[in-house]
Amino acid sequence: MTTACLAPDALQFVCTLVRQRSAIELDDAKAYLIEARLGPVAKKNGFTSAAEMVTNLRAKPNQTIQQQLVEAMTTNETSFFRDIHPFEALRQQILPALQKLSLNRKLNIWSAACSTGQEAYSVAMLLRENFPDLCAGKVQILGTDIADEVLARARAGAFSQIEMNRGLPANLLARYFQRKGLQWEITSNLRELVSFNKLNFIEHWPPLPTMDVVFLRNVLIYFSPATKRQILEKVRAVMAPHAVLFLGAAETTMNLDSSFVRVQVDNQVFYKLK
User: Fold this and answer.
1) pLDDT per residue over 67-114, tens digit each?
2) Which helix (H) or strand (E) holds 153?
3) In whole angstroms, what is the distance from residue 131 CA to residue 149 CA?
4) Is the pTM value of this prediction over 0.90?
5) 121: CB partners within 8 A, 6+ apart
6) Are 220 and 25 in contact, with CB atoms under 8 Å apart?
7) Nearest to 27 by CA among 224, 188, 190, 194
8) Whole-angstrom distance between the N-terminal and C-terminal Cα of the chain?
């Protein structure tokens, strides 16, 4: 495949399409990243270059390829127990407090923008290890993402050796994974705790249960302030009064949504509703 660079108008077309479909903000400074991610999409669809694919899309819009293009622009960086502090907060403060509540429903934990599922499965392992009583039909973990391809991988629950080496303790690997060829597969006692659905933050949301814990980590950084406010408003609407929200280390609700208050316990930071 050739590596023809995108012309400025073609690059603008891609940025506009991605913004319209996902609200993710791209600009000329990310031209190299954009072209690198478009290459595999172009090859998959029989084009000799990303430039040729974009030219073709501008002349003959194709919904399938456009969706693949948008999905290619989403960042799917994830790992097991990524940035351990939120999981420590969940284990030490949040879940013990939630256990004391008398709820007439399951506890709901949401991994938003879940990518290939490592965050959701990490929560499931934490529950199995530390709160076995909750795993007896008292908790449900939901993972959502905009991209069909990563959701398919999350549902499959199969990971490469490289993915397993990123953040997963050896004792948990032995307890919750089985080797299948070149990959490791999640065991059924984790899989039964987790479900995955498609959700685009800027489109109509499917019905969601009342959430007790929301992981929205390293997501808001890709959106404009106005879109961040819209997302936080929607997230707030599905949170229980006692619920907690985890954001990425570089993210905050400050100057975006005054309904949240920041809570810090040692190195562990989360947000609660006022």
Assistant:
1) 888 888 876 778 999 999 999 999 999 999 999 987 889 999 999 999
2) helix 148-156
3) 32
4) no
5) 80, 157, 176, 186, 190, 194
6) no
7) 224
8) 54
